[in-house]
Amino acid sequence: MSFTQIKGQNFAVSNLKNFIKTGKIPPAMIFYGPAGVGKAKAAIALAKALNCQNLGPDFEPCDLCQNCKQIDIKTHPDIIFADYAYQASLLKEEIEDQQNIKIETVRSLTNASQQKAAAAKWKVFIIDKAERLVPAAANALLKFIEEPPQNTVWILVSSKRETMLSTIKSRCQSISFAPLSTQIITEILKDNFIENDLAQKAAQYAEGSTENAFLIAGLLEDFASLDRDASFATQVSLTLPRTLAQARPKVNIILDMLLQKAHQNWLKEKDDKNKEKLAKLIQDFVFYKKALKQNVAPQMVAETALVKASISNIKIEEIL
Fold first, then answer.
1. Hey, where are the domains in the chain?
2. What CATH fold (topology level) applies to the domain 3-176?
3. Which of 206, 302, 204, 315 minimizes the C-alpha distance to 262?
């Protein structure tokens, strides 16, 4: 992973390269922006650039030296990428059970930050989904990001910076990552062997996020064989996974797609009564998203939302 592989984030990448060029590396940073736009990739690229043994003149890591290779496969002793998989392994738990970044994980990282580097010039600690730090974990992190040891960098990756503790945000240099264009997302999907028409449709509703786009592409493939008749909503419900953890993100994406389509129709509608009906439909979809967070059965939410959309003249076939 190098900076050149991070598409659509020229401003953020330029800032990171400038830190390396000037030698003024912020000891703590927040990489924030929508999910799936390259934040974690940029954090890994920065860790590699800080420790690359053959750094190029354009501050691109070589991807060939031992440090670069170890960072890529997450085995470098001085660069830790703390995501849900890391936490599950650390705490000997199932990855499906991870919903927050726990204090035990932060304590493990802060302890490691106090140890002498084994092989790197810069120790780098990356916390993915940093908005999910439980309060105790966030507070435990505070003093370590405020006064880290020399040549130590903390990178907090977040898609919801606004929900993070203000004391954390005030101690970090914030680097903004923008939503990706539909064209860039389409290219990324096609590079991952998703056929052109499917890639374009998924990118259209992805709201600038490759994470959303891949999920949408998977949904569209799942629903491709279903009949677009009166039973479609029920068929979708039966196609969804039975477990809450697996079904919820898929239904959330369906609701987001319906919201986008309803909003597009609202913008184009000229009749005041129809416009009012569409506004009410949008409110319903927002309510369903809230209900989804409260453990209401995702299958029921999806079926209800699709039925509502159909009777409100939303052309489901144009979405799913």
1. 3-176, 182-318
2. Rossmann fold (3.40.50)
3. 315
